[in-house]
Amino acid sequence: MVQSTRQPILLGLTEPLRTIVNGKFVRARANQDLLFSETQLSVIHSKELDITIQLRYCPALKSKPKQTQHEQTAKKFDPFEDPAPGLLIERIPPQDHSHNLVLNKYPVIENHFIAATKHNKPQSDLLEEDDLYATYACLRSWQEDIEDDSRRALFAFFNSGEHSGASQPHRHLQFLPVENMISDDEAGWGLLCDSMTFPAHDGLPLLHNPNLPFIHFATKLGIGMDGRALSEKYMLLMKAAFATINAGCDLSNIDKISMSPDKGSAFSYNLAMTTEIMAILPRKAEAGVITGTSDGIVFVNGTVLAGTMMVKSEDDFARLREEPELVQQVLRHITYPVRTTRM
Prior knowledge:
Layout: H1 8-11, H2 17-30, E1 40-46, E2 51-57, H3 69-73, E3 88-92, E4 99-103, E5 113-117, H4 129-142, E6 154-160, E7 172-177, H5 178-181, E8 198-199, E9 207-208, E10 217-220, H6 227-247, E11 268-273, E12 277-283, E13 287-289, E14 297-299, E15 308-311, H7 314-322, H8 326-334
Parallel strand pairs: 2-15
Antiparallel strand pairs: 1-2, 3-4, 4-5, 5-7, 6-7, 6-11, 8-9, 10-12, 11-12, 13-14, 14-15
Helix pairs in contact: 4-6
């Protein structure tokens, strides 16, 4: 099944997706169906890595309640099993739907929404064709009827595994409108995955950013991709990441790597998607550490591939602004280092 640049067949929406999401977000915020937390934002540049990062000070992270012993042993509440009416955006596709589009209940960026599987499938299992196609269709639908403008694009990300920043076991992918992530004074910032434009292998359609000292891969996406084509791209990234972590970037035999859809991915990772690129970042830790501050913890989830990090301490926020090269320390802590390659 090949789709055009428009996606009415899958989404079946009567209005543009961006209009529906924004209207639902405004109502949910007014009705207190969601709890929006303000953040303080600063843009920092690492000269050594030659990347620009959004740094968000999120004091609400400090007040996140800890689970009691009873809550830890009780069945965990699943917010995606039967989405609250005030948060439910749409069910897609309209006939025999596979996913629910739901607003994030605790957003720090406006219009943050989620595509959750209708049935409770594990977040740790491999993504399926309908997961990837639903994501791709949302990305393309978001840009319907507007000119090609990277500042009005949609960024999708997926966290999988214990070190990825994943907070819910029910499979879900998340979406952030780029226009809601930026302000007019953020010259120089762009999605980190968009910087992965250099060939990473002579014989495979893999890309990377050679300035980044940690394992990552990207691959281009095209117009009109179906679920099978997207799954092939995804599996290429998964196998390349797995081979690189375990065999020092010997990618010559990745076709021989077998990954069972229902046995997990064997490693933690973040996945990012736009209409033009899919990227993967294998992970070995959920948070980075900087020394010499009161907290020193920098939480990093899939938004790192968008070039965004969050801190809950004002001291850490100030320290990173004063010493942007500490970004590299954080990234080294959560990722796998690039090894000697054998292409």
